[in-house]
Amino acid sequence: MTDGARDRRSDASGTPRRAPILPRLVAVLVGYGAACLMAAFVLLIGASAPDRLWAPGIHISGNLVSSGLFVVGILSVFVAALAAAPAAVGIILGELLVVRNFFYYTIGGGLLAGLGYYAAAARGMMPLTGIEQRTSETILMTAAGLVAGFSYWAVAGRRAGVDRYLRD
Q: In the UniProt record, does the keyword Membrane occur (predicted)?
């Protein structure tokens, strides 16, 4: 081992330096918050009948925008609470294995959201009436998960790995 590599990994007395955990923890929490907000935006737009929302003659007013932002804020809290456990598993694995791949977070978010919602609907935990409605809502949840995974990657996943400070 060269002196330069030893200096980066340890201090003058030879004691190993520790990776700064607090900046990574803040990045993970901010990334998770951004992912939940973006998922809430997708769910709001997908659930508010896009064919009527963007129809000719519909004017978007300030009241509609402020109401939408209020709903997104409330919805993102529910998204954060419901997705916390599966997202934590994916985030911890990504951090420990130093996965910085765009596809890991994006596809993982879509799979977790879509499969989780479909499993809950198939068990009767969601009040869905038919297979068509279950399929369309599962697609909407998958889209929200894909966007959330991308958002997390853009904020925190690109620099995943708490030990990156100690690597060459």
A: yes
Number of separate domains in the chain:
1
Tell me the pLDDT tens digit for each residue of 81-140.
Answer: 989 999 999 999 998 888 889 999 999 999 999 888 888 777 777 665 666 667 788 888
Q: Is residue 4 part of a domain?
A: no
Whether the predicted model's global pTM rises above the 0.70 cut: yes
- Kindly tell me the sign of the dihedral angle through the C-alpha atoms of 55, 146, 81, 35: negative
Residue 137 CA to its chain's centroid (Å): 18
3-state secondary structure of 18: coil
Q: Which one has a higher pLDDT value, 4 or 148?
A: 148
Could you tell me if residue 10 is inside a domain? no
**102-122 and 131-155 helices, crossing angle to 10°:** 150
